[in-house]
Amino acid sequence: MDAQGRGRDEGIDPADQWVLNPDTGDYELRLTPSPGRSSASAGAPEARTPGARRTTTPEAAPSGDRASVPGQRSGRRGSGGGRGDRGDRDDARKPGSRAAAPTTGRRKAKPKKSRKKKALVWTGGVLAFLLVGTGTAGYLVYQHFNGNITALSTDGAGTGGFSKDRAINVLVIGTDKRTGEGNEGYGDAGSVGHADTNILFHVSKDRTNATALSIPRDLITDIPDCPTTLENGDKKDIPGTTGDRFNTSLGQSERTPSCTMRTVTELTGLEVDHFMVADFNAVKSLTTAVGGVEVCLAKDIDDKDSHLKLPKGKHTIEGEEALSFLRTRHSVGFGSDLSRIEIQQQFLGSLMRKLKSNDTLTSPTKMWTLAEAATKALTVDDKISDINQLRKLGMELASVDPKNITFATVPVLDNPDDAATVVLDEAKAKKVFSMMREDVSFTAVAKQEKAAAKAKNDAKLKGEKAAAADVRVDVYNGGAPAGSAQAALDWLQNEEGVLKSTNQANAEENVKKTQLVYAPNQADQARRLADMMGLTASALKPTKEDAGEMDPMALTLGPDFTEAGSPLSAPDKTPDGVQRVEADKAVCAE
Known about the structure:
The protein has 590 residues and is an alpha+beta fold. It is built from 16 helices and 28 strands.
């Protein structure tokens, strides 16, 4: 009898036979025999993963051992294994599975984790990131899923991949491509697949918080030149355009998601690590896989364009109905794309809460189904086209508590030249982008508040400040936009009265962030300049020896310098009027 058959025979959910090996971090099939079974019968000639096609195992697993998933490390201890392969084992058995008999000399087992904590191990990327019907089902590390994933090149547009020691930026794109059964009835059936829904998911370096920033499709912006790998493998340089809709960064003129990545970086100043793309079919399959998502309506809706017809109140929707909900705009808010963004954010917050619930976390079968749907539905960049990379990314994204995840929208204004489009609200948008670049949370996070208070009280910023006329400084360009040193100099002299300042052109080496180097006896000057420019304590770099009376400080402008007069330190709270909602808050669409 195979593993699936034995599970049915003993009343065990076949998915419950897949358990985590804490030594390797991989999932393995436990083939523990029932009492009375011989060791020979414990090894099944075939093992089948839940919902997967039948595969032949390389050999029968001995009684009490685990059969590893093909292509993964084994959790068994060989006679030649080192101490690094050992350790107390938390078998994480599910209720109903049979415990193996204790072995003489085995170490005392560690206290078992709570059921909820063990269930969290199943979620990984699945619960971490399902935005606009998209997600990364990375934690179920089975070779089976690799064949499901579709990948496209970043064409050098991103960072080359996320890293554990810095913030993460993932761009999620929902296209309006109408291919697939039942989708031809939605709007433009011939769409090439534009960037219809766009969310930049930013996870802070310390993983305490995240911001999901929606970028309106109708935002007028500049699309940069885009080196592109075409579908047939050919390379092509696609020229940029000015004053175009953001959604044309994908699909138009054969542009691929790598071009949307470049456009986001040009717009926000944030470098993107990865992209994920989903079409209409992905929305339908993923919401069905998760068992539906609860939404709330403050009024009856009958939208002839999106085909959504629901009465006032709470509803659990999936498949075609979920897609209709996400596409609704004429019947909510002001009837614009901005109103649709708001109900999409409400939907996504509900989806995250659903994925965090015990109903999802404690069902390996549900998690398997969701992972299968997610890996088939997504198109990702080539840096996360391997399931192991998706797993690692998923674990990073999943670490953020929903109460510290904020959905926000890029601040925009009506376009006076075209009522169907919007333009950037420069003043507010710059503050939002700065907050994300500087890892400032949009919600109250105790750890970050404590760090911010400590930074404000830093000794470098406390003390007397010199008069502006007594500040002596040389200004260098160390990676800021061209002309920044002269622009800063003009502002310092004409607006702030720092007349003892000079433009020293380009620095010998670029810097990651703007910095001010000063001597101990120039501390009062440094504090005055920091106050003028909004420099943080970390930007002040004191030397060990005093400077001469006529020696200037050295101000080197980095990539964070955008324009003279704009504070280089990010705001400590969201600007007034910026639309936002926390992922843990249930909101009814109006």
